Amino acid sequence: MKKTPTVERLLKNMGNMHELGRQRAFELGNPFYAQFEEYGKYWCKELPTGEKYLVEIEIISDANGIPKEIKDTVIKKLN
């Protein structure tokens, strides 16, 4: 199977995968959650408006273990 140039470019730089997820979350009007080493056990929540928060999250799953909801508790505003 031949790789397309876009796929090859993405595979060369796997560090940009979170940016693609961020972009898609904002397209859907959802917040983007990411966990960075400097925040320890907490997560960074970024809204489509650019506001960022340090949050603690709880992932609610259905009976099959499939995530269906994220509940977050704001710890502090980052910007």
Q: Which helices and strands occur, and which strands form pairs?
A:
Blueprint: H1 5-12, H2 17-27, E1 32-34, E2 43-46, E3 52-61, E4 67-77
Antiparallel strand pairs: 1-2, 2-3, 3-4
Provide a compact summary of the structure:
With 79 residues, the protein is an alpha+beta fold. It contains 2 helices and 4 strands; from the N terminus they run H-H-E-E-E-E. The protein has a 4-stranded antiparallel β-sheet.
Please describe what this structure looks like.
By secondary structure, the protein is α+β, with helices and mostly antiparallel strands. It has one domain. The chain is 24% helix and 35% strand. It contains two helices and four strands, in the order H-H-E-E-E-E. It has helices at residues 5-12, 17-27, and strands spanning 32-34, 43-46, 52-61, 67-77. Strands 1-2-3-4 form a four-stranded antiparallel beta sheet. It is globular and about 45 Å long. The model has no long low-confidence stretch (mean pLDDT 87).
